[in-house]
Design a protein that fits this description.
globular, six-stranded mixed beta sheet, 158 residues, alpha+beta, homotrimer
Chain lengths: 158, 158, 158
Amino acid sequence: MNDKLIARLTVEAFLADYMLAIDSDRLEEWHDFFTQDGTYRVTTRENEELGLPLNIMSCRGHGMFKDRITALRTANIFEPHVYCHIPGALRITGMKGDVIESESTFTIIRTTNHGDMRVFVCGRTRDRIVLGEGGPKLIDRTVILDSRQIETLLVIPI
Amino acid sequence: MNDKLIARLTVEAFLADYMLAIDSDRLEEWHDFFTQDGTYRVTTRENEELGLPLNIMSCRGHGMFKDRITALRTANIFEPHVYCHIPGALRITGMKGDVIESESTFTIIRTTNHGDMRVFVCGRTRDRIVLGEGGPKLIDRTVILDSRQIETLLVIPI
Amino acid sequence: MNDKLIARLTVEAFLADYMLAIDSDRLEEWHDFFTQDGTYRVTTRENEELGLPLNIMSCRGHGMFKDRITALRTANIFEPHVYCHIPGALRITGMKGDVIESESTFTIIRTTNHGDMRVFVCGRTRDRIVLGEGGPKLIDRTVILDSRQIETLLVIPI
């Protein structure tokens, strides 16, 4: 097995942990998947292709990640629902020292309390991950949604 | 590659075999993915969170697995349909000797004879798998559905 | 790790590259995932079970692959849409020398310009892949759709 294949397996396992933390409502762990000053943003394919700087969601640094989850836990009012992340295709797009760049597709099935179950969003991510003693961490994660429309408030992170 | 990553790949390949056996209608092989006295149950997230012991489906031991498939082949009347299992995120939650514990998410797309195609169920599994000479076997498999509602009789195993 | 597990990882990474090329609209690379005289066909589960030779789409050799993409780029009129391939379960069904045979399931979520997002197709593939200096290449790829109906013209390859 070459280095690229091993990097792919490492990223795959790490992103699976990330998705399962969110789907299991362990949102207080979310920031810890990022480096101290890691960044996260969600945009749409259309914005990305047009080069528009608009983001649907954006965070930088552990403080903002934690604030967002606190808001979600205390202030936001939304219909209870759960996510089921389905990872799609994953490929390594770059490797430099301890840093791995990857892109991947994903789908999220959302189930509401009423039992309604549907494809909520799908799209792709571009991730930069640094390997370290404490395990891999995201330097930045960009989520690019295929659809320009988000049916409901995007509350839970992707 | 560390032991945990290798365990993850082993479980992933094993669960893919499991899903493809079901999706290929090789249901007579189902029991053989379990140990002789293996257990299988399907419940909902709501029941699991409330600690309710209610199961939607439950089997213990090869005899019950085989009975269930015989019933499906001969007695049950249901609209013909096929499953397409899409495995989701997978992580190893424990390793003790030859036994690996894992959790994973999944989605099933069901297609009826009329061509209707939809997300049938999604949710997660908790699996305990023992490695042996005859290949991995499930000691127990718990399927926890995100939705409290199952639109139709759950006939084919998940 | 045994040879079969390594073959599985190699095929998985290769098919992920294939899917991401298509989902990223890098369709001009499509032919290059196949050997010079590689074949590709799309059929339905029903046709396959009845032994019917009807194909929904069929290509042999790089020339036909390229023609198909040229037609798509220039001649076909269809509503703009993007695919999001979600790979499903994958297993190795044969290994002989440099050739690996595999089967896998998949789902495609299609998003139109209006933002409509739905399960477009799901089904399975049977692939024969040859390993070589230039990386893996498909000798043949058969896509077997679960549904007998394709809602719209199948324009973009699967």
